[in-house]
Amino acid sequence: MKKIKYLQSEVKKGDAVQTTFEHKKSEDFKIQPGDNLYIRVNNALSTTENIFSLDQESRSSNYYNDVGIYLNSYRVSDSGYIDFPFVGKVFLKDHTLEQAQELLQSIVDDYLKGTTVIVRLAIFKVTMLGEFNRPGEYSVYESKFNIFDAIAQAGDLTTFAKRNKIYLVRQTESGSKVVHLDLNDIGILESEYYTIMPNDIIYAQPVKGKNFAFREFPYSLIFTTISTTLLLINFFKTN
Looking at the domain covering 36-122, what would its CATH class be? Predict the structure, then answer.
């Protein structure tokens, strides 16, 4: 099996090889219609959480699959609102998660003091296309998810992938942005695109020789030669 290497280059500071890398901050994710938000209100009084929580039956089920995440989250409507228990509709479209948390905290504080509101994405999607062993759309439940986490989810790159030609498509306010990533360059650890954002698309470009390798390689000739060789060996053994 061919061994694949990543991060082959070295970054030097003076005479020393750099071993610690600081990730550049990515653009803050902004809530959009269709997003599922996990919102929890914590307080010393157990009844407080019940007031501002979704149906307790679904919460107590403790699901860990897509259905459970959906049942235990607040879906942002097409118009950008969530229906928050005891409060009503709250507009969250284009808010960052931090801004949404601050807004909901101020709303809850009008009803009860001493509470803590937690807001995060319950689930988001990342799409892996091209030369991955398991390409497809994946659900992500982690708050910190990087390019190598995404590659691992898709079963690693195939041996035909150009590791210096990985493209990331990210949705921005002005449209789709395409970014070139080189997985051989250790400097990617400091890239603002090292951290994966919701709805990112990652495309792994194949090497030019792949078509020849699969379509034009003379497999029939090889198999015929092997069969003939085995036949001759068997013939000489019996005579």
Answer: alpha beta
